[in-house]
C-alpha cells in the first residue's frame, strides 16, 4: 500500500511542487490538498491520510492549532510533518511540542522531502534538527526535570532514549547497543509510557527540556 499524504499550505505553488515531487515516487500518493489549517480535521476524517504535510503559518488556523485539533479529534491520528521556510522557527518547535512528528524545510531537496515523508510514516526515527534541539534545551524548566526524575528510567531505557535523541531508528539503536530489534522496540515503548509521551518526538523534547541530554 502506498503512503498517503495530505498537503496543507496556503501557497498553491508550494503544494504543486510538493505534489510533483511526492507523486513521482511509486510508494507515495497525494490524496488531497488544503489551503488552511481550518480545513484539516474534516479532510483527515474523509481521506484518512498516513501523513499530513502541514505549513506552520497560515492565515485562518496555523499549523500548531491544526495539529492540536487533529490529535484531539481524530483517532487514530495521522503522522504530522510540519513544513516551514525558516529552520530556527519557534512556531515549528511549538508545533512539535503540540504533537507533530517531524520537521521539513520548504527549500529541502526533492530526495530529502521524500525521505522525510517515509521517515515520518514509518515512525521509528526522528526529524528533529540541531537548531530545534537548542530551542528545547533553552526552554528547560524544573517541571520537565521533575517529570524525567519521576519516570525513573532504567539504565538501558536511559541509553535507548539517548540514542533516540540522536535521531537513530530502532534498527540503528539495535546495532549501536548490540540488542535485538524487538528488544529495542520494547525499551522504546517503555520510555514513551514512563514519560507519558505520544511518540518519539515528544520523548526527545522531554529529554532536552529536562537536561537529560544536551545539544552537541
UniProtKB/TrEMBL annotation:
Write the record's keywords in alphabetical order, separated by commas.
DNA-binding, Phosphoprotein, Transcription, Transcription regulation
Where on the tree of life does the source sit, at the highest rank? Bacteria
Q: What InterPro entries does UniProt report for this protein, alphabetically? A: CheY-like_superfamily (IPR011006), NreC/VraR/RcsB-like_REC (IPR058245), Sig_transdc_resp-reg_C-effctor (IPR016032), Sig_transdc_resp-reg_receiver (IPR001789), Tscrpt_reg_LuxR_C (IPR000792), WalR-like (IPR039420)
UniProt keyword Cell division, yes or no:
no
Chain positions found as 4-aspartylphosphate: 55
List the CDD domains hit by this protein, alphabetically. LuxR_C_like, REC_NarL-like
| TM region(s), chain numbering | none
Response regulatory domain location is 4-121
Under which name does UniProt file this protein? Response regulator
HTH luxR-type domain sequence ranges: 146-211
Q: Which SUPFAM superfamilies match?
A: C-terminal effector domain of the bipartite response regulators (SSF46894), CheY-like (SSF52172)
Amino acid at each position: 500500500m502506498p503512503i498517503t499524504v495530505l498537503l496543507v499550505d496556503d501557497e498553491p505553488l508550494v503544494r504543486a511542487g510538493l505534489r510533483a515531487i511526492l507523486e513521482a515516487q511509486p510508494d507515495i500518493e497525494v490524496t488531497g490538498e488544503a489551503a488552511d489549517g481550518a480545513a484539516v480535521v474534516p479532510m483527515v476524517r474523509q481521506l484518512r491520510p498516513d501523513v499530513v504535510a502541514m505549513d506552520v503559518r497560515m492565515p485562518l488556523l496555523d499549523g500548531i492549532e491544526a495539529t492540536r485539533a487533529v490529535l484531539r479529534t481524530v483517532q487514530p491520528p495521522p503522522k504530522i510533518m510540519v513544513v516551514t521556510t525558516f529552520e530556527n522557527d519557534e512556531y515549528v518547535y511549538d508545533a512539535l511540542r503540540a504533537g507533530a512528528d517531524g520537521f521539513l524545510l520548504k527549500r529541502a531537496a526533492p530526495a530529502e522531502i521524500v525521505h522525510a515523508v517515509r521517515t515520518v510514516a514509518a515512525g521509528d526515527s526522528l526529524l528533529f534538527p540541531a537548531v530545534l534541539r537548542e530551542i528545547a534545551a533553552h526552554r528547560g524548566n524544573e517541571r520537565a526535570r521533575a517529570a524525567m526524575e519521576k519516570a525513573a528510567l532504567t539504565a538501558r531505557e536511559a541509553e535507548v532514549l539517548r540514542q533516540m535523541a540522536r535521531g537513530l531508528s530502532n534498527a540503528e539503536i539495535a546495532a549501536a547497543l548490540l540488542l535485538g530489534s524487538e528488544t529495542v522496540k520494547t525499551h522504546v515503548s517503555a520510555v514513551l509510557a514512563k514519560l507519558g509521551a505520544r511518540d518519539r518526538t515528544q520523548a526527545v523534547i522531554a529529554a532536552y527540556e529536562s537536561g537529560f541530554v544536551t545539544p552537541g
